[in-house]
Design brief:
Elements lengths: L22 E10 L2 E11 L4 E6 L5 H9 L6 E6 L2 E2 L10 E4 L11 H11 L4 H14 L15 H14 L4 E5 L7 H18 L2 E6 L2 H7 L2 E6 L2 E6 L1 H6 L4 H6 L4 E10 L4 E5 L4 E4 L10 E6 L5 E3 L8 E12 L3 E8 L4 E7 L14 E6 L4 E4 L2
Parallel strand pairs: 3-8, 3-9, 6-7, 7-8
Antiparallel strand pairs: 1-2, 1-4, 4-5, 9-10, 11-12, 11-14, 12-13, 14-20, 15-19, 16-17, 16-19, 17-18
Helix pairs in contact: 2-3, 2-4, 3-4
The structure holds adenosine-5'-triphosphate.
Adenosine-5'-triphosphate binds next to strand 2 and helix 1.
């Protein structure tokens, strides 16, 4: 079976027409005065899904979370959770908890008191609280820090206390607003995997807001790409990367080359695109592009091969010269200026220590790629 990218786990209720969505945003609009922060947005999230809302600053991500948590109500449209319309239900009566960007730990309380706080407020018996707190400390591996105050902890440890506190009440859904924002890069990467394990072990539904595409790609089952309060695409990380639906999504996630042109020929499976300089590109994955339409062929740098000699037998070959080059250790990135002046990025994995076909600045070079190496975009 062919599939896009690697598969994280065999969990894909969205492909099952009989599966019932758990969270539904139905034509939700949120206005602040005349400003529309969320614009007629519809979205479904499934139980036990790790769902990421990804978008640039101000695109409406946090507003969506706040409406789900009950801190804001939609101006129009509905939000359903497990079939129930949430309108009018106050935050504390929703089976949803939110972990804020700032963690908002109580500075005068110890780690265990912070975790116990919500349980005490709920009136849980002391013995049950003690047991639950102990379970939570174990879950986030902070048993030996139970008596410390937040200022005696590292950023990563504070983040884990906040996480333990937000899941202590066993919410069905945990909302996380930039949960790893305060951590440095290395700790972020480690914590991403911890979060994924935690979510799977607890069997919760996680909705996470992030502007970091790598973070969303690493952690989420599906990602919604947002722009100006609207959904641009909802798909698995591999689909978003390998089969973006528009120029916006292709540009937003990862590096991409956009070869603009016109569809000269179109058959059921293939198309030929003619660029401004007359160069022809033979492609598959032509989607709904019709003959004569203006399109972009979006191709990722790692799908392009660079060589010093004209390759034999490749479907698409273009001539150029090395315009720029960056050796990054694990890979080398080439900027190749084509004959028509366009600069194309190509990356090559340095899987051996010695390069067989060394290329340097201003060398003549050829790029080549397969017909299914990219996608044709009409939007
Ligand atoms: P960031 O990544 O910067 O947190 P975001 O995508 O989470 O951004 P939101 O906080 O949802 O963005 O805000 C979306 C838009 O709505 C922004 O332009 C913001 O200025 C506006 N907005 C949010 N809350 C209010 C408010 N209470 N009153 C007026 N405008 C608001």
């Amino acid at each position: 079976m062919k599939s896009l990218g690697s598969i994280r786990r065999s969990f894909s209720p969205w492909t099952d027409p009989a599966a019932k969505p758990y969270i539904v945003f139905e034509n939700v609009t949120k206005k602040f005065g005349d400003f529309t922060a969320v614009n007629d947005l519809s979205l479904t999230i499934y139980e036990r899904e790790f769902f990421a809302l990804l978008g640039a600053s101000g695109c409406g991500k946090s507003t969506l979370l706040r409406m789900l948590a009950g801190f804001d109500e939609p101006t129009s449209g509905r939000i359903l959770l497990d079939g129930q319309d949430l309108r009018g239900i106050p935050p504390y009566r929703r089976p949803v908890n939110m972990m804020f960007q700032s963690y908002a730990l109580f500075p005068h309380m110890s780690v265990e008191q912070n975790i116990a706080f919500g349980l005490k407020q709920e009136g849980m018996p002391k013995a049950d609280i003690d047991k639950r707190v102990a379970d939570m400390l174990k879950l986030v591996k902070l048993e030996q820090f139970a008596k410390r105050k937040p200022h005696q902890l590292s950023g990563g440890q504070r983040q884990r206390v906040a996480l333990a506190r937000s899941v202590a009440k066993r919410p069905k859904v945990l909302l996380l607003d930039e949960p790893l924002g305060a951590l440095d890069k290395k700790l972020r990467e480690e914590t991403q995997f911890e979060l994924m394990d935690l979510q799977q072990n607890l069997g919760l539904t996680f909705v996470v807001v992030t502007h970091d595409q790598e973070e969303a790609m690493t952690m989420a089952d599906r990602i919604a790409i947002l722009d100006k309060g609207q959904v641009m695409q909802v798909a698995t990380p591999a689909e978003v990367y390998e089969a973006p639906v528009s120029r916006f999504v292709a540009n937003f996630v990862g590096n991409v080359n956009m070869l603009e042109g016109t569809v000269a020929e179109r058959s059921e499976k293939t198309a030929t695109i003619t660029g401004a300089s007359g160069a022809k590109i033979r492609v598959e994955n032509a989607g709904d592009a019709t003959a004569g339409s203006t399109v972009a062929f979006a191709i990722r740098p790692e799908k392009i091969k660079v060589s010093s000699r004209k390759p034999d037998g490749a479907a698409n070959v273009m001539e150029g010269e090395i315009y720029d080059l960056a050796y990054l250790g694990d890979m080398t990135v080439y900027h190749v200026r084509l004959v028509d002046g366009q600069v194309v990025k190509a990356s090559a994995l340095n899987s051996s220590r010695i390069t067989e076909d060394p290329l340097s600045w201003n060398d003549k070079a050829w790029i080549s790629f397969a017909p299914d190496a990219g996608v044709v975009l009409t939007r």
